[in-house]
Amino acid sequence: MDKKLKNITRGCRLNDRVFSKIVARARAGEFSKELDVARFIKYEMRKAGAGLAFSPIVAIGKNAVDWHHRPTNSRLAGGGFCVIDFGARFNRYCSDMTRTIYFGKASKKEKAIYGKVLRVNVLCTKKIREGADGHRIYLYAKKLLGGHAKYFGHGLGHGLKKIIHAKPRLSKKEGQFLSAGDIVTIEPGVYVPKNFGIRVEDDILVTKKGYRGLSHATKKLIEIG
Ligand SMILES: [Mn+2]
Q: Could you tell me the distance, in angstroms and rounded to a whole number, from the CA of residue 63 to the centre of ligand 1?
């Protein structure tokens, strides 16, 4: 296994583990604000001997409309969707995962929108293979989002290397062809201004015949409290 794959796989495994710990602690009522979760992520990464691929994003409710939101003292309880985006770094190689959980009880409508974003994540992943054009997969995501496409303002994904936002890109940019051995993110999102944000992001290895998912944390909508 090459160095990049080995280190990013290790990062993805750690991300999965940290996410399940976040859920357990959240269920136990141990997090009251965004910063509590962000600090916990940093602590767990350090404990595991990993660096941070970037400063963790924890964004409750309307804070998540800014997809680069910096964690604050905003209260989590009853705040609705909470975007948690973080990544471990081993030997400088970056991993990157986002899960969106829900503080409170999600309505039917909210569950449906979450389901839509998740579906885009799953269906776009299936398009990954050597030679596929990242731009076309991005356009496919836009199509699948339908009426919500206008609330998806960033790219669908990017390569992962020693820098967090590497090539190839799955975005507005044309002609970004995927090669076997590339590791890319798939991260559709929906951000409704002044309301809420949802993003679901995995790291995917491009192979000759298709892909291999490296992120395994559950994507079922988790409700806290
Ligand atoms: Mn990303």
A: 18
